[in-house]
Design brief:
Strand order of the largest sheet: 1-2-8-5-3
Structural class: alpha+beta
Pfam families: p450 (PF00067)
InterPro entries: Cyt_P450, Cyt_P450_CS, Cyt_P450_E_grp-I, Cyt_P450_sf
Radius of gyration: 23 Å
Distance between the termini: 48 Å
Protein name: Cytochrome P450
Cofactor: heme
GO molecular function: heme binding; iron ion binding; monooxygenase activity; oxidoreductase activity, acting on paired donors, with incorporation or reduction of molecular oxygen
CATH superfamily: Cytochrome P450
Number of helices: 17
Shape: globular
CATH topology: Cytochrome p450
Mean pLDDT: 85
CATH architecture: Orthogonal Bundle
Length: 481
């Protein structure tokens, strides 16, 4: 039990009660129509229970117990805010497409990410920022990045996997994804600057869902300080690239920041300000750094005990490799042939979604399944509430990539597979993540076999899933490769 967190929360109770009373003053009482459940203690609510469940990897049970007790719509309090938990495909659709809801991160995440990030924008501002980011992620742009990703992956394997008997997967995958993102998003070459930024981002995620008490010994303070250092580093990078853009010395295709600096509207005005570019570069780094590294780590974890799937993947990648010259980089067309590998990735995402869930806020009084959700309340959606639903996925605890072989014939209703979210806010970096994953797995499965070093094959969630001890494995080189 995290007694320090409990103590900090209790200290904050007295000062926070008055704030909550001000926020709720004047609201018409509709208690009879509110969802079932309890808001718990002021400020604390059920926050500590959820955090404990995440850290012990019992969050699925924690959510299911609430669903079993109260149904698919229930009320609770998380991170100092009244919240409604919703579950099921219809609830997911409501979450992703309702104009009565806007994104709402916990207060800790809002402080860390800043007010200009896409995760908390809505309406015209959200469309403007998302449109700018998608300019960098267009298919014709992505095709140009395959060679860069290929080079980063090969270099990573030569430096960190070759001539090793054991490796620890999770930190290596984080290093790899950070290197890829640093090159393509920020145009950063290897060196002290990239290493410092990597160190800061290791700490940023620690406080994203923490109780937002800014004291020296809290995870929130460490995360806040790390995000400040990272923001200053990206501000310096943005200034340097801005000078190159204005001097005609930079190509719009070279990296994300240069691309965003180059975008103008019909009046010749820049689409994004420097502050917006920095804020959304941080979001892009967090999203791309952690989610893809988690996906690849858990694919490696699964393949260690699934020789049938691994053998099928090896065959798929050897077929691609035999038609290429020695040392020739992968292409966009090669990635399109890796259909089985992406099905394995999808099934991994179904069973271990990198993001536990997300919040929205009610912009007005709304009704869902006959229940009243007051304006200003949070709405929480979780991926596993549908991913592990036996009425949607037959034997949901069984790893079965064939579920995604012919999705048009699948019985799963819309908004059942949601590792990237859905609707207008679906993750814009899906294809980028797919590219990184496919290129990396191509070289790993062709060159290595592995087995788990730990007898216990467990993982925990400290916001994001992490396998025991970072997933140490014993590796051997494939003689055929």
């Amino acid at each position: 039990m995290d007694y320090l967190a409990i103590a900090v929360a209790l200290v904050a109770v007295v000062s926070s009660i008055a704030i909550i009373q001000l926020l709720t003053r004047g609201r018409k009482p509709c208690a009879a129509n509110l969802p079932p459940g309890s808001l718990g203690l002021p400020v604390i609510g059920q926050s500590l229970g959820l955090l404990r469940a995440l850290r012990s990897n019992t969050n699925d049970q924690w959510i299911q117990e609430r669903i079993d007790r109260y149904g698919p719509v229930s009320k609770l309090s998380l991170f100092g805010t009244p919240t409604v938990l919703i579950a099921g495909p219809a609830a997911n659709k409501f979450m992703f497409f309702s104009s009565a809801l806007a994104t709402r991160q916990p207060r800790s995440a809002q402080r860390i990410l800043g007010k200009n990030s896409i995760v908390d924008l809505h309406g015209a501002d959200h469309r403007r920022v998302r449109g700018a980011l998608q300019e960098f992620l267009r298919p014709d742009m992505l095709k140009m990045y395959v060679r860069t990703i290929d080079g980063e992956v090969r270099r990573h394997i030569d430096e960190n996997w070759a001539n090793r008997a054991t490796v620890t997967v999770m930190p290596l995958m984080k290093t790899l994804t950070f290197d890829v993102i640093s090159a393509l998003l920020f145009g950063l070459e290897r060196g002290a600057r990239r290493d410092a930024l990597a160190g800061d981002f290791d700490h940023v995620m620690e406080g994203m869902w923490a109780i937002p008490v800014n004291l020296p010994f809290t995870a929130f303070r460490r995360s806040l300080e790390a995000s400040g250092r990272a923001r200053r580093a990206l501000e310096a990078i943005t200034r340097e690239k801005k000078e190159k853009v204005e001097g005609g010395k930079a190509s719009r295709n070279s990296d994300l920041i240069t691309c965003l600096l180059s975008l103008t509207d019909e009046h010749g005005e820049r689409v994004l300000s420097d502050e917006e570019i920095v804020a959304n570069a941080i979001v892009a780094l967090i999203a791309g750094h952690d989610t893809t590294s988690i996906l690849m780590t858990f694919m490696i974890r699964q393949l260690a005990s699934d020789p049938t799937t691994l053998a099928a993947m090896v065959q798929e990648h050897e077929e691609i490799a035999k038609n290429k010259a020695d040392g020739e980089a992968l292409t966009w067309e090669d990635l399109a042939k890796m259909k089985l590998t992406w099905r394995v990735a999808q099934e991994t995402l179904r069973m271990v979604p990198p993001i536990f869930g997300n919040f929205r806020v009610a912009l007005q009084d709304i009704e869902l399944d006959g229940y009243f959700i007051p304006k200003g309340w949070q709405v929480l959606w979780t991926a596993n509430a549908t991913h592990m639903d036996a009425s949607i996925y037959h034997e949901p605890a069984k790893f079965d990539p064939s579920r995604f072989e012919n999705q048009s014939a699948s019985a799963a209703p819309p908004c059942s597979f949601v590792p990237f979210g859905g609707g207008p806010r679906i993750c814009p970096g899906i294809e980028f993540s797919r590219m990184e994953t496919l290129v990396t797995m191509h070289y790993l499965v062709r060159h290595f076999t592995w087995k788990l070093s730990c007898k216990s094959d467990t993982f925990v969630r400290n916001l994001l899933p992490s396998p025991l001890h970072g997933l140490p494995i014993q590796i051997e080189h494939r003689t055929s490769a």
